Amino acid sequence: MRRFGYFFGLMLLMFVMVGCSADEETGAGEDGEISGEITVWAHPFASEGDEESKMWDEIISSYEEEFGVEVNFEQIPWSNRDQKILTALAANNGPDVFYAIPDQMPQYADEGMLLELDPYLEDMDMDDFVDTALVSTTWQDKTYGLPILQEAYTLYYNKEIVEAIGEDPENLPTTWEEFEEWSNKAKEKGYYAMTYPGGGSMNGTIYPWIWQAGGDIITKDDEVLINSPESVEAFEFINDMYEEGEIPKDSITAMEHNALWDNGEIMATLGSGITLTNLLSKDVVDFAIGEPLKNEEKVTYGTTGMFVVPSNSDNKAAAAEFVKTITNTENQRKFNEVTQYIPTRESAKDIFDDQEYLSQLSEYTQYALPGVIHPVGRDIMPLIQAEVQTMMEGKKTPQEAADAAAEAIKAKLNN
């Protein structure tokens, strides 16, 4: 068993001990009917609490009316969610359904803490899901969740700066080569080319560039690829931009560059739907949204949110049906109209047909990878970040930094 910290290991031990003696009842009778009750945990997703409460009431009612199963719904805070979920599951008094994100799912699934959903999906229209939305719901070729929302990170451009460098905001870069040409022009005019919050998540910094270069970090089979020639090209790309002064001086450790962007000092910023919301609310930058860039691959980052069922649920069949119900087309429309995330079903994306920017972003989820889907995905981030920062400080070459990151990942795998 890999180590994910003392607390995770302790909770896992408790989970296994409880699970060995847990009731194996699935909630389905001999005739296939389900009954009883389930407990569902989710987080607050929208700022308008009343609208969200109404949304949940409608979704839950649609399920209860169809299956005759009572739903006990609890909204839990985002903070300390891992601890709350693991503690509850280990004590065998946790939910039957809960919301999970991509770096949680493989940890839980790898340790047998999640129910495989494939046996319950024979009547499910899986072809309607965006392919990339299913990446984070599977581990070792088994399905452990169904996706409810997606994001897609891409570059937002300051139109005034684009025009100042002699380019057209209606014809934004689509490749690394084109973006590098624009970056050079921006530097010559006294602007930074883009934001680079090097103190933040790797998902929003070097990972998208690694994927666009045709590289990867680690595969599900534990093959470490972060120091492959393709991945090193991304290290070189970021390092060159820093050395040329095309990204801000504090990019090594900065958590954000909002002030520089708002003040019109940066040509482009990598962002998601939250970025869009902030831009529209502030109304200080006239912007245009570009499509994800391509070097060898046209790809970007975008998280996926999903609902999963713990393997020690006392009502597995009913819980699986709830996950299927909440992620159907009708309920995805309800959920994402309120939360303003992008549906993971193509048939539900019509909720944004009359919203120019969200409609555009929804087209990009087909290119959005949800991060590193691996049990150590969360743990290796700071290890990689440290090596990228060391490179930007000038203490290591891109190849040396990538090699050191690879060794750190291998060490984590062997722990």
Which features would summarize this protein structure in a list?
415 residues, alpha/beta, five-stranded mixed β-sheet, 15 helices, four-stranded mixed β-sheet
Q: Main sheet, how many strands, which sense, barrel?
A: 5 strands, mixed
Strand order of the largest sheet: 2-1-3-12-6
Work out the helicity level. Answer: 40-55%
Question: What's the helix count?
Answer: 15
Overall shape: globular
Helix and strand element order:
HEHEHEHEEEEHHEHHHEHEEEHHHEHH
Radius of gyration over all CA atoms, rounded: 22 Å
Write down how many β-strands occur, each being a DSSP E stretch of 2 or more residues: 13
Explain what you see.
The N and C termini lie close together (9 Å). The protein contains 15 helices and 13 strands. α2 (49-67) links the parallel β1 and β2 (70-75). The chain is globular and about 70 Å long. α1 packs parallel to α3 (81-90), α2 (49-67) runs antiparallel to α12 and α7 (206-212) packs across α8. With 415 residues, the chain is α/β, with parallel strands linked by helices. It has helices at residues 6-21, 49-67, 81-90, 105-110, 159-164, 176-188, 206-212, 229-243, 258-262, 273-282, 316-326, 329-339, 356-363, 381-392, 398-414, and strands at 37-42, 70-75, 97-100, 138-139, 142-143, 145-150, 154-158, 192-194, 266-271, 287-289, 300-301, 304-308, 368-369. It has a five-stranded mixed sheet.
